[in-house]
Amino acid sequence: QNSLDYIGKRVAIGQTKDYRIRRALQVLDRYLLPHIGNAEEDRIKKAYYLGQMAQKVMELALGFREPDDKDHYANKRLKLAGELFTSLFRVAFLNLVKDIKYQLERTAVRGRAPNIKTAVRADVITERIRHALATGNWVGGKAGVSQLLNRTNLTPLSRM
């Protein structure tokens, strides 16, 4: 209970103790090791996984284990197309929301009635995605993610 209240004081500042504990449990379920699961039943699996991590750290500290090679491909994390497009769309959508807000504020300052057709510019998301595909520069500073396929040379096709 004390540990949950400790976490709750950081996520639900100024709330009652019961609410802080409920909120801490929600945070643990949703954000701590989400790849294991988000349900209440997954807490045991998460505790076991944290125990395995602690065991590996202790073995390393005591010299029973060698440190993992971060450059080895078994320890690399791949970002596939779906995840990259998700983050790209999220950024593009947030840009669209900011642009709509700006357009509506601009029409309000001018004293005009807001018009949704003029406030929503359809090309904001499209241009962001098109730019990322054309240049290979994606969100998060990732470069070289995509490149144009030259159809006059068959060498790139042979690598697929």
Automatic annotation (TrEMBL):
Keywords of the record: DNA-directed RNA polymerase, Nucleotidyltransferase, Transcription, Transferase
Segments forming a coiled coil: none
The GO cellular component terms are: DNA-directed RNA polymerase complex
Keyword Transferase among UniProt keywords: yes
**Hydrolase as a keyword?**
no
Q: What class of enzyme is it?
A: transferase
Record-linked InterPro entries = DNA-dir_RNA_pol_su2, RNA_pol_Rpb2_2, RNA_pol_Rpb2_2_sf
> Which molecular function term from Gene Ontology is one that the record holds?
DNA binding
Q: What is its EC number?
A: 2.7.7.6
Gene Ontology annotations of biological process type: DNA-templated transcription
Q: What is this protein called?
A: DNA-directed RNA polymerase
SUPFAM superfamilies noted in UniProt? beta and beta-prime subunits of DNA dependent RNA-polymerase (SSF64484)
Indicate the segments forming the RNA polymerase Rpb2 domain, all copies.
2-79
